[in-house]
Protein 1
Amino acid sequence: MAVQALAPRSEPVRVMKDPLGNSFEYCYQCGLCTASCRTAFAMKFTPRQVMNLLQLGCEDEAAASGSGMLCTACYSCTFRCPRGVAVTDMMAAIQRLNIHRKHADRDIRRFYLSFMRTVERHGRFHEIEFMTRYFLPNPLLLRAELGVGFHLLTKGKISLNPAGVKNTKAMAAMFHKAEEIEGRL
Amino acid sequence: MVVPSNNWEPTIVGFLCNWCAYQGADLAGTSRMTYAPNVRIVRVMCTGRIDPTFVLKAFQSGADGVIVAGCHPGDCHYSEGNYKTIRRVTLLRKLLSQMGIDPERFRLEWVSAGEGAKWAQIADEMSAAIKAKGPLAWWETLKEA
Amino acid sequence: MAESKNDVRIGVYVCHCGSNIAGTVDVDDLTSFAQQQGSVAVARNYKFMCSEPGQALIKKDIEELGLNRVVVASCSPRMHEPTFRRVCEDANLNPYQLDMCNIREQCSWVHKSGATGKAKALVSAAISRAYYLQPLERREVLVTPAVLVVGGGIAGIQAALKVAEAGHKVYLVEREPSIGGHMIQLDKTFPTLDCSACILTPKMAAVKAHPDIELMTYSEVVDVQGYVGNFRVTIRRKPRYVDESLCTGCGICQEKCPWKADSEFDCGLGQRKAIYTPFPQAVPNVPVIDPEHCVYIQKEGKCGACLKFCERGAIDFTQKEKMVDVEVGAIIVATGYDLMDPSAISRLGYKRFPNVITSMEFERLCNATGPTGGHITIDGKEPKSVAIIHCVGSRDEKYHTYCSRVCCMYALKFAHLIGEKIEGAQVYQFYIDMRCYGKGFEEFYQRASSEAVNFVRGRPAQVTDFAMTPEEKGKLVVVCENTLVGRPVRVPVDMVILCPAMEPRADAKEVARRFNLSQSADGFLLEKHAKLDPVATANDGVFIVGCVQGPKDIPDTVAQGLAGAAEALALIEKGRVELEAATAFVNEAACSGCKICVSLCPYSAITFSETEKLSHINEALCKGCGVCVAACPAGAIVGRHFTDQQILAEVAALLVDTRPATVAV
Amino acid sequence: MSYVYYPGCSLTGTARECEESIQSVMRFLGVKWTELEDWNCCGAAVATGVSYLLSLALPARNLALSEKTEADLVTGCSRCYLNLIRAQHYIQHNANLKRDVNAVLAEAGIQYAGTARLRHLLDVIINDVGLDTVAEKVTQPLSGLQVAAYYGCCQGMWTYAQFDSTEDPTCFDRLLAALGAEVVYYPLKQACCGGTLSMSKRAVGAPLIGDLLLAAIAVEADCIVTACPLCTFNLNSFQNEAGRAKGTKFNMPVLFVTQLMGLAFGLPPKTLGLHRNVVPPDPVYRKIAAGAAASSAEAVASGTK
């Protein structure tokens, strides 16, 4: 097996420097985050390993692993971290890298972007529109959701024309402004 | 009127008690913490020694801000010197406003011998706060009066 | 001042401190700046001013150039003021004619830029203050040749024995009914595995037997007055309800007492009587009556079994709390540590599950004199698998940031003991880093590694009874990441031992105040210098030894106990101690007799003479805090070495660069 | 005390039963509020994965709207609460973020000052209404009903940090006990339900739900009571999938907290949205009725004595 050279450490993306807690530099690899995580079992790299990859400047490798996509943002890791690392925010950061650098599985990527798109258009979540955007390109996904969808419909839990915010233009402008300030990663 | 130049830096005098705050400042040094060089320290044995005229003298001599730092209440090396300071400082603040000095240019802080980081933080905060306020140049006021 | 302006000749000495100062401050620039200041006869810089040649340089200048003030711009006065004062003295210059200018701790070490400018201001201030410095007289008083040791754990025991061996009186004060501290609760000690009680009890007995040690157990220090060499200490002696002089320690009272309570000594795992000695080898071997559980005390006279059975009539319910005053020259504080209560970290299940226990509880379970007679059992069941969780509350900024230093080693010891006592037991060590830094420690780690111990590198998140597989049914499951493999693991076990942090005593703050000491950021008491003065404190004559200063193992604690004894002995053997020279005095001509100063003095050093209508300061009592100086409305009180004149000159010079040159202040 | 109520998207859609019960119960308790005018989506669990700034600006818009009303902003959805409090906290501690967020909000003509007072529904019920008042209003005590109080994850971490213990909150237990229910020890009370993974990554999400249900069965709970609409949705909707993942079949009633409160107050099930629950809560009804019968029989027995 070839020994891989570590990438030179780059300036970590701005948003990883989180205001609430410490950044990944503080991590001392105890694994309490992983142990507190209900989805770590399914991750290629556990949260602790993600912190290590970030420390070593391998953020693309961390993002591509898809581990960030399994974070449910339950904040257990962040609240418990003995070094005060804002682990959840670090995971969210690699989630963003994963989506914006197109590492993600197309369906999952579409899940995120469709959701945000409906919010951008209406200011609120719009089930029917979201489902259309999400399921239409890959109707196979729909099959798995038939049971749930049936329940939701019959129990009257999907409104066909939900209300949105009054000024949808202003909402879209907020989205654009955010993108302008942040840039895409 | 003194117009601050772009690279104007405030000068702050710190009166620190020998037992807590001065040691705390030493600890910041031994721990190699970096902080703004604007604070210049005068060592006194106890903050209780600080005569309000010292503070006025500092402002008069060109200080833009003054910090008095001593042991936490209850921890005074001389039992209760810092309680006397608290009382004196209340009067001093009134005096400063009467004399046209923004009382926020004066601070009383508690720094224990173990709180090097706290001292560094206070020095940084105070420097930034005074920098935002601009030069005091009290001697100008005194000249006019 | 008798000197005229031309008589003042100041020498300024700028230290490079290798590159510690010279790396940041332009020392040549600073020296020529100093040279230009008024009354400066000479300014020099040198690599290490505190070295022999550096000192010689100053001495030579004082002698040859007739310097009468010296300014040393170097490290904190807390480091080398004594050194340079001695240099002055050697050259026949009064040591109080020296001023130290701190350009290291408070300048070169903390500033990246602007350090030279600040150093100039500081040096200029020091020169101006030095100009007004006056010679002071050093006074000496005799030292009371006795030592107070507070705390009867291994640190205090060791210190007390050593001082007494040197032939001096020791008062050993212990809060609990017996001396022994935490060490007497331990089973075996790492890495040699000798029995803790076996090595400690001879020392405890020696304390009891030593004619120069006055042992006061069940007692607490409530007040400390005075100063180095002459402390006056008030000790509260709680009522034992047993006359120590009559009791023979036969134990019949404990046998007959019908009332029980949880044993503190056994961490609540076993019981004791309402009249009890905490453990069989207690020193003194005199029981105490716990008033909360004694029915005679609670219900006014009902019961009295102990009274009836004590043949010596040693039971004395009329005993009252007593205050005792002692006078000592030095104080050794050895009040130890508390073990953190891990129920604060509720997810680890302590107090929820009976088979989650602390390390100290395990020591008692393992001990032959413990509640189970040395059998490792909970509710009669012997565990076949045990998890040991390291760093509980240590290395965790939510609780204690520091490492508790002993847990790795005793965890290895536990694994060994479990292996010895339970055939085929599986032991899992959940660790973050193994820290085996002491003599023989790594060897012990090696030995333990060969004894079928499973090492799992990871900090567990949870101890749960929720079973996800049939194997986990009825077990405690430790949820962790095996970080070396990068996989979450669930380890079912029968018993979990938590290794809680060693933390400052709950009353550390009060203790610090009582003895006029400081606490470091972690809450432990603060030593004078972390490396070079580890047991002395900012309060001269008071020394801190053992875990009161920070977590330590037994050898380090013992070494500190001995160090504290050496410090105390050095003080006592010298027999004299220098008093503060920088005291205050009243300028009688200016005193208006307002008496404001009298009530302000914390040492009652100021008296008012009704006949003269003047205040007087007793300089033997004055500590030089200066509160009265600042308060005197007539400006009649002068605080030596920190006079108004000196401080005002210092302040003005400190700011000399901040004003336009034309402004005269 | 005046309140504005922020329902959030789930409560107006997939978690309609929660919303109906919240409204009925709060009306019954005499709590008056108005809906936050022109509220928007808080970003759910998705915004952080797309834009850091939006994940703060979206909730900040709602906070800013509530500031104008000067009333306490109440939400019954834990995820909304989390996003709102996170935004509040981060913006408060970082001046640069506040600047950026307000630059985004300026596009909608509003600014966030930082004075909003955020409250969780449970906080209002427990601390403003009070457990004594709740207990007094109970007409149908839930005696004999064994409930597992499921606090949920961000509930335990962020929400309870505001008015209860972070690691081991007990307020939910106390509330349910005030209703007369028997709160069983539930070992997974703070384990995450998997959030949106039930939809985006079924293979990971379903077993997590399965464990929660198994744990409730193991402690012999008659139902799970939740404090979060998303937990309610997950635990109700994916019992079949969870069952497949765990090789069993589940039929565990899962009630939102105000649904159970409503039952104890004797409110009609229909007004509590109970007919919309995926898993029919019939066993819960039966248990409550049995408990009532037993206690009235006891009352008769003690009367004849």
Protein 2
Amino acid sequence: MTGAPQDSLFRAPPPAEQERMVEAILFASAAPVTVGELHARLPHGCDAPAALERLAKRYEGRGIRLQRVGDAWAMRTAPDLAFLMTRETVETRRLSRAAIETLAIVAYHQPVTRAEIEEIRGVSVSRGTVEQLMEMDWIKLGQRRQTPGRPVTFVVTRAFLDHFGLSSPRDLPGLKELRAAGLLEGTPPPTEAQGVEDDAPDDMFERSPPEES
Amino acid sequence: MTGAPQDSLFRAPPPAEQERMVEAILFASAAPVTVGELHARLPHGCDAPAALERLAKRYEGRGIRLQRVGDAWAMRTAPDLAFLMTRETVETRRLSRAAIETLAIVAYHQPVTRAEIEEIRGVSVSRGTVEQLMEMDWIKLGQRRQTPGRPVTFVVTRAFLDHFGLSSPRDLPGLKELRAAGLLEGTPPPTEAQGVEDDAPDDMFERSPPEES
Amino acid sequence: MAEDFIEGPARDDVAERLAAEALIVDVDGFEGPLDLLLTLARTQKVDLRRVSVLQLARQYLTFVERARALRIELAADYLVMAAWLAFLKSRLLLPPDPEEEGPSAEDLAAHLAFQLERLEAMRTAAARLMARDQLGRDVFARGEPQGLERSRKVIWTATLLDLMQGYARTRTRDDFRPFVMDRQGIWTMEEALERLRPIIGAVGDWTDLMAFLPDGWDGDPGRRRSATASTFAATLEMAKNGRLELRQDDMFGPIRLRAARA
């Protein structure tokens, strides 16, 4: 759709106009808007990624900023102004320790099976924990593992990324270090001294199914 | 409260900072915010009207703008971009039972008057049903019946035939075929069996109005 | 096992012993044996990668023994772990047996240490995750989302099957209409009288009753029966009124009639 103005009956709006259109769409929506949705709503021939880039730059250092959430974008208040927002704060349900750990394991190990979560935590995962996280729309089912029994796997959602202000699962804090230390594997690194798994699966998150739109 | 930094223990934030604070508050608020509310939420010594003025200027010509709502302020998408905020969704819905039956009677008995449709269905036909079918361009007015009152008749349209993939109304399966297909379950009155149905459906459409029942 | 009590790992460390006491009182607070092991490992105050698994096994077994002495119910998985650690401990203390198959005691110990380190890492990661700026707490979305105004265009649709079923429904409904006498196969006496009245005056000679049946009513037996009976009843009525004469020459012979002679 982008860069193909010749197949358009009408000329695409000028870049500045595209930018303010994207601005209006993102502003009006509380949920992140995917690039695909932007293209569907913008006039034909618009280049949403370019407009988003210019817009993100424009909002740098402002009270609102553009936040990338997977393949979507959202406008969010700057975190340093949280103290002004006490009025808007929504009381979220307090998660149990089991739920928080399970969430972290899904995020760092995704796609991960229930058995793997249990192996890492050393206890069985209660059904309620997984259900609560799914109900919060923070984890969802991924593709089935192609191993005997074809167990279901869990992956994190876009709402999870949005909630924690992550552009992608790669931005999880400490992900690189954990991977380098071999702590995202099922077995200890072969020799502990030089157990630097630099070639550890970088495509960990590509293996997860495409984000829903 | 404004312009009185001397009564503040702490120095008020610099103007640019006040501006982004107002920006974030207006963005996150569910309703327009009054100047009084702004002062109550901003750090001590802030000048909300001045910040609002700078913010309004900053958003001039952008996709979002500052708007006064009574004695309060809100951020709104620019009015000229309203077209981006609507999306035409096309929804397909199944026709109501009344409409289907009316349509079927027109198709099988055309040209047919409203009184005849009512006689066959056994209930009165609502104006809305006929209007809906005419609006959909599936039935249209035929010639007036040459009987007292010269009532209008209805016939099916080309669009109707196209939709149902029929080359002519004669392609509609006759009563006998309907029964063979299990669509007509009741047993017919004994004598009607010979006289009427043997030559269906061929003269079904010439034979109007329906004489039976 | 008794030896563990004598030279217990926490013998000369009062703080550690107090901590172990606290652990026991708190046994319900643990999320399984691995959680308990991790807590015990922390008391060694070393990098988890250098944790002494042998010492850890002793600590755990001591914990289980004390819990039993205090008659604290321990879940089965704590006891399974205890058995496994006792086995591991003995393997670690004995010189390796070259005949032995499977992973060495060192491998098993390394795996346990890895499991602890991995759990610890996930806990740290979880804490870091929860410490991030969170939506609705630190970062806020548009408070008054406009939403997409949807102008809905409805396309009505129906299939040929819908149409046929709809038609079938209207026709089937007829078949279930309230019962009325179905007169299509019946020739009533009124109709017979109606038919006979204008023509009877011209019947001079004796004529077979069957000749007076209406057209098309002499084929189907049911219809013929109805028409015959009605016509006969009508002739009786007319004979009573003196308008015609009837005769039947023999039993089951044809019934004949003629106009009454004045």
